[in-house]
Amino acid sequence: MAEEKRASRENLARLRIDRDEIALREPPRWRAWLLAGALVFAFCLAALGAWRATLGRTAEVHVAYARRNAPGAATAGAVLTGSGYIVTGERYVSLGVRVPSRIEKYLVEEGQRVDKGQPLVQLDPRQYDAALNQARAALVRARADRELRRKELARAEQLVERGVLSTADLDVKQNQMHVADAEVAQLEATVDRAKVDLDDTVIRAPTAGLILEKFKEVGEIAVPGGFAGSGELIRMANLEDLRAELDVNESDMARVKLGQPAEVQPDAYSDRHYRAKVVKLYPQINRQKGTLKVEVRIEDPDEWLRPDMSVRVTFLQELAPSADGAEPSLVLVPREAVRTDGGASFAWAVTEGRLRRVPLQTAGERGGDMVVSSGLSGGEALVLGPAEGLKEGERVEVAKPAAN
């Protein structure tokens, strides 16, 4: 009986939980709460710092500056725009051969600029060189015969004076002299023609320009003329008179006239603009398309412009002067700086680090800029890009331009 009681006590001892041991293994709950409170406090401090930094920070904006027209510059607004192509005033110059011969070598390459009279193609000159030498030899013989006839005529005249020779014989000698003169003249012309034929074995540029294309290979036979341009050997363009050609809708004809200023902008180089002037209005309307072909001459072309290049043409119109006869005060601003609100134009200007809303009066476009007739005097810093959230009087900071 005693042993059973002892065994029960041992079993109960095994089931008993030692609270002191648990206390040593697990931290108290107040420590966890203290750690959580510290984390919340640190987060609040960080949020407060960020909020204060946001309050003290100013918005950063990108700006461009309004430009006043230079004295004497054309103050014009855009009245019509259209797309066209670069052409030459004399169109393309197609060069062929006047004398048939084998192509010996090309002296230029496509894309090369040439001067007037510069050699372009060399043909085989041997047969024409031989023909010239033959004509010169025949001329030497004819001149020798003429000299002999002249001496015979002189002796015949002396014999007629002495009564030894009849006048009929003198007439024969005179006729022989005239024939000799004619033969010499004929052979001189033959020599000149042979010189021209020999000179034409070198094809030269009739004008300054740009080589566009070569149509035959070295070693081929080049012949004059032919069908479907088969006699064409090389093609070039005269770049001294570059023009932009485009079609204008019949309904817009009233906006275009001869002498009207224009501006040409190549699609390949959108940052380049060229002054131009309307020089040709074609006399006939294209009935199928309802358009009129117009040409504008580019005043200062450069090496960036090439024939058949696509361009955008802006027709400009001179603005009327003010009531006192003075030119209106106009400035040019980037198109991105001009905004509209309810049909009214305005711009955000930065003055002493703060935003100022400036109402504008616009007078059309000029290339990539807007012409402003009132509201700006030139030199103002205007905000570019998105303008959401901007307010009158807000402090801003002008962004520094990106380094190249």
Question: Can you give the helix content as a percent range?
Answer: 25-40%
Strand order of the largest sheet: 3-18-22-21-20-19
Using only C-alpha atoms, the radius of gyration works out to 47 Å
Structural class by helix and strand composition? alpha+beta
Query: How large is the count of helical segments?
Result: 5
Strand content: 25-35%
Mean pLDDT: 81
How many structural domains in the coordinates? 3
Q: What coarse outline follows from CA principal-axis ratios?
A: elongated
User: Biggest β-sheet: count, sense, barrel?
Assistant: 6 strands, antiparallel
Secondary-structure element series: HHHEEEEEEEEHHEEEEEEEEEEEEEEEE
Distance between the termini: 103 Å
Strand elements, count: 24
Low-pLDDT runs of 5+ residues are 51-56, 71-75
Describe this structure in words.
With 404 residues, the protein is of the alpha+beta class. The chain has three domains: 91 residues, conserved putative lor/sdh protein from methanococcus maripaludis s2 fold (Beta Barrel), CATH 2.40.420.20; 92 residues, Beta Barrel (Elongation Factor Tu (Ef-tu), domain 3), CATH 2.40.30; 131 residues. 29% of the residues lie in helices and 33% in strands.
Descriptors for this entry?
Elongation Factor Tu (Ef-tu), domain 3; 5 helices; 404 residues; alpha+beta; 33% strand; 24 strands; conserved putative lor/sdh protein from methanococcus maripaludis s2 fold; six-stranded antiparallel β-sheet; single chain
Strand and helix layout:
Layout lengths: L1 H14 L3 H7 L3 H28 L2 E3 L1 E3 L1 E2 L7 E13 L3 E5 L4 E6 L6 E2 L4 E5 L2 H37 L4 H33 L2 E3 L4 E6 L6 E2 L9 E6 L4 E8 L11 E6 L7 E8 L9 E8 L11 E9 L12 E4 L4 E3 L2 E8 L2 E13 L2 E6 L6 E3 L12 E3 L6
Parallel strand pairs: 1-24
Antiparallel strand pairs: 2-23, 3-18, 4-13, 4-17, 5-12, 6-8, 6-11, 7-10, 8-9, 10-12, 13-16, 14-15, 14-17, 15-16, 18-22, 19-20, 20-21, 21-22
